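Write out the 3D structure for:
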Amino acid sequence: MRNWALIMVDVQNDFCPGGSLAITDGDQVVHPLNLISAAAAMRNCPILASRDWHPRVTKHFQTYGGIWPVHCVQGTFGAEFHKELNVKRGIVNATVVSKGMDPNKDDYSAFDGIAEDGRNVFRCLWYAGVETVLIGGLATDYCVKATALDARKNGFRVVLLTDACRAVNLQPDDGQKAIEEMAAAGVKFKTVKEVQDELDHQLAS
């Protein structure tokens, strides 16, 4: 696997245990994402970390006609990345991508967001010569799925890191349906260890 990038999707406090929109075991994605982000950094591969960055008033929230409780409001603790996620420390210096800022849009996909330097995600990846995008984070059945499908629509090969994702599961099978939808779009599925083994094999060959 060459010319690859990592997108860590919405690993924020409000989606982790104790948050306003907590996903079961949401914090369990942090360790595998830290492992693969370290591998990406050592190989100078682009690392992007998307975040919901909602205004206080948005159609995304139940109060204003949406389906979700208030979460990830700009500047709040709930909108911060999980404290153990390596975003900007050590060898990892991820580009933060903010989305959901338009009060009239949901913006599930990281491709709807804007990076710190003003570029969109497609430009960040395209200018870096990326061919394959690895994706993990929260949640499998919403923002992760939307990001993976948009990556495919934009012509990238996509690998979903199965042990680095968790689903909301508003309905018990939503996560599985999301997997099936992504598979139908050509997304491939690997664990972080499988990816690491593949990278190690390339170095040895």
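The mean pLDDT is 96.
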